[in-house]
Write a structure and sequence with these properties.
The structure is a single chain. The protein is mostly helical. It has two domains: 51 residues; 33 residues. 66% of the residues lie in helices and 0% in strands. It is flat, with a radius of gyration of 31 Å.
Length: 114
């Protein structure tokens, strides 16, 4: 039996049909996964909203402006979810951050000795 152009085109059509079917199946699986995960996220958000306590107005501490307290509370909410801030206080004067930065900076480039 001789392999003709018609047989080659038939083989190519079969291969393309298989690729199309597999691609559609993968697309359906991805759609199901995305739908399932979005429903879970919506349910988790609804549950968290139901369980979240009512926000209590923070009592301003002397020396810390109220807008700073609001910014701190918003940052905590964005990073950790619903939490209750019990105390905000000044950490005092510390040079730990600057000392660490200097140490890392000086350690990043060591001069060559002759």
């Amino acid at each position: 039996m001789e392999y003709s152009t018609a047989l080659a085109l038939t083989d190519i059509a079969i291969i393309y049909a298989i690729v199309i079917v597999v691609s559609l199946l993968i697309a359906v699986v991805i759609k199901v996964i995305v739908t399932t995960l979005s429903r879970r996220a919506d349910n988790a958000a609804a549950t968290a909203a139901k369980l979240a306590p009512v926000a209590v107005t923070p009592v301003p501490v002397s020396g810390i402006p109220p807008d700073h307290l609001v910014a701190i509370a918003a940052a905590v909410m964005a990073m950790s979810g619903a939490h209750r801030i019990v105390r905000i206080q000044s950490s005092g004067q510390s040079y730990a951050w600057t000392a660490t930065g200097r140490t890392q900076h000086h350690g990043s480039h060591r001069p060559r000795r002759p």
